[in-house]
Structure formats: structure tokens, C-alpha cells
Design goal:
Layout: H1 20-32, H2 36-53, H3 63-74, H4 90-94, H5 114-125, H6 130-150, H7 157-167, H8 184-217
């Protein structure tokens, strides 16, 4: 008796599990019909059953088109039946997408973020002068803040200047500068205050949303 037990691991693989094993068996039955007239008849019946099993998709554009595509996919593109829509392509379905380029340009200092590198590249295009100097120190201060978000300990300005020198490919050199960046503790307090403000705003929005929902109920 135990030998007659059929385990799911031994059964045919379900291509679209949401429809269940019985629908997959019906698809296989449709493929086995000898005449195209029979296959068309079973295919239309299957589309009706599949539509009833997925009522939440009825509001989706091209609902019927999606059902026919799924029917051919479940048949492994072997069902020879007439469809009111263009049949899906197996090659197109199995085509692998191209690899997306990773946006990180300087993985050595990930904690600064990509925007810092963009700002540095812009600063490199500016002519020397007060504006470029102001932008350079603004970037350095922001780098220091990013560094402290990653590592809560204090950081020496010379470390930031060295990183800025590397990220700018030697174009921006503040090493040995007498001008000091914003105090580390001030940046930490500023960062904590910003985080608390964001948290407070989220809580207030959550409370307002709950109050609105309660009013709608009553």
C-alpha cells in the first residue's frame, strides 16, 4: 500500500503553480487531442477555468491575452491551437536580460555615496577661485558627516582631506590646510537631530492616517 503513495517530488513539475496540478493535467490533455478542432475546444474551456481561478486579474489590461500566454507557457509551447492573440515566443521568454552596470564608482569608500563623487567631478570642472574653494570645503564637510554616520568615532580632518584627494584623482588637495572642518561632535548632534525629526514626522503622519481611517469607519 505504501508503494502506491505518490509524492509531489516525484510528480511532473508545475510550470505555473498558481493554477494547480489539475489545470496542468488539463493542459497536457489538450496537447494530446488528435484534431485541431478538439484542441481549440479544450483550450477555450481551459481559458474559462483559468479566468475563474484568477478573478483578481480581471481588472488587469489585456486579461484574456495574459491567460492565453500562460496557457501556451504551461504547454511548453507545444499546444497547437488557434489563439485570438499572437503566440508568445519561447526564445523571448527564455532570453536573459543584460547585466546592469553597478553604479558604485569607488567601492573603497562606499560610505560617502555616489553623490559625493558626482559633486567632486563637478568641482574639478570649475575654475580656481572663491566659489570653487567654498564648494570644496562644503564637499569636505559633507564627507565628514557621511564618515561619522558610518563610524561614530571622531575623525581627523586630514583623513577627510586624504580621501578627497584620492577621489578627485589628485585634483583637489586640501592636505595641510589650516582651515578646520565642522567639529565632529556638532556633526553627530546635527545628524541625530535630523534622524529624530524624521522619526517624529513619520509618527505624526502615522497618527494622522489612523485618525483619518477611524473617521471614515464611523
Amino acid at each position: 500500500m505504501i508503494d502506491d503513495i505518490e509524492y509531489n517530488t516525484e510528480r511532473e513539475h508545475l510550470i505555473i503553480p498558481e493554477y494547480g496540478r489539475h489545470v496542468q493535467k488539463m493542459v497536457n490533455y489538450a496537447k494530446s487531442r488528435e484534431t485541431k478542432e478538439e484542441r481549440n475546444k479544450v483550450a477555450k474551456a481551459l481559458i474559462s477555468v483559468m479566468g475563474n481561478l484568477q478573478p483578481h486579474l480581471r481588472d488587469v489590461p489585456d486579461f484574456q491575452h495574459k491567460l492565453w500566454d500562460q496557457l501556451f507557457i504551461m504547454s511548453k509551447f507545444e499546444l497547437d491551437a488557434d489563439s485570438p492573440y499572437e503566440k508568445p515566443s519561447k526564445d523571448l521568454l527564455e532570453e536573459r536580460p543584460e547585466n546592469l552596470p553597478y553604479p558604485q564608482n569607488f567601492p573603497k569608500y562606499r560610505f560617502y555615496g555616489n553623490n559625493i563623487k558626482t559633486m567632486i567631478d563637478v568641482a574639478n570642472t570649475w575654475e580656481d577661485g572663491e566659489l570653487k574653494e567654498a564648494l570644496t570645503y562644503t564637499i569636505a564637510n559633507h564627507m565628514k558627516k557621511c564618515f561619522l554616520n558610518w563610524n561614530k568615532d571622531t575623525v581627523e580632518d586630514e583623513v577627510i582631506f586624504q580621501h578627497l584627494f584620492e577621489l578627485s584623482n589628485g585634483e583637489i588637495n586640501l592636505k595641510g590646510s589650516k582651515e578646520k572642518l565642522t567639529d565632529s561632535q556638532s556633526l553627530i548632534r546635527s545628524s541625530n537631530a535630523s534622524a529624530k525629526k524624521t522619526s517624529s514626522v513619520k509618527k505624526n503622519n502615522y497618527k494622522k492616517s489612523n485618525n483619518t481611517n477611524r473617521k471614515k469607519r464611523f
